[in-house]
Amino acid sequence: MGTSKAYKGRPDTGRLLPPEAQTAADGPPQNEPEGAQENRPPNEPRAPDVTFRQARRAFNTLLEGFSRGATSTAGGGIARVARDYVRASGGARTAAQAGPNGRAGARNLGGFLSAVVRDGLSGAVSRFNIDALAGLPPDVVLVRLLDALMPNATSREGVLARSCLANALERWLERHDVAGRGVEALENTSRAEIPDLMRLYLTEYVHDRMLNELVDWAERTGDDETAGELSEHLREYIDGKLEQHLERQVDEFGPDAWVDRADVIAERLFDDVYGLLEDLPSTDADGRSEDDEGGEG
Predict the structure, then answer these.
(1) What is the pTM of this model?
(2) Which end of the chain is less congested by CB atoms within 10 angstroms, N or C?
(3) How many angstroms separate the CA atoms of 149 and 144, rounded?
(4) Is 154 helix (H, G, I), strand (E, B) or coil?
(5) Per residue in 39-49, pLDDT tens?
(6) How many Cα atoms are found within 13 Å in the side-chain-facing hemisphere of 99?
């Protein structure tokens, strides 16, 4: 169906971001004047302690290393870029709050898939007020599911979230061969597929949003192959952290949790992923912790 994608070079802002959605209001948050944080009420988000300029510079430095073939120490550099991005966004809580459509997509995807497993496809379709899907080709099924699970996604972040949700739903339809067996094949959806598809959705969302907000790094290179390689390393890094966290969630909530309350767990997971990226220490090329050195951001 053609919506699956692997990032190649510069973020395709023409595809993800319609012209009317590319406004100054969608830009990254700016640092506050010195001393402003001391005057904040305790419940307000803190100001960033890393600027987007610093986060972009970290990304550019890593990209330059990739262009020279220095990929053996990529893990530490990617950890730093991810951490600096979250901090530049104002911290994990603020970064998550800036993605309302991403959170809604996680909640609705988890809720819909759990309803399919629990109540069957017809029950899930009825619960989410989706028009009949029987006899429709996969591309029409995909559009109807998208319109039900993420309607009116017209903002910059909304269009990006809808694209990532389409990718996860398409994987689900392909996995059950809806093109060959019909939509009834989705009745065979297992509970194990819910966290798997959620991980795919969140990895794509966090990865794509990060690249869109750190877009300057791609403006400065014509080496699409190197940029694509770095993008895939970043995607794998985010996916690996989510996989580990999901394993811990099974231990905490039990194996049936994704069927009984998938929507709630999905929202929590959306918030958690930014904390996972912010809290991890980064290392430089020598393996030393940047925090230990007292270095910048």
Answers:
(1) 0.77
(2) N
(3) 9
(4) coil
(5) 434 444 555 67
(6) 33
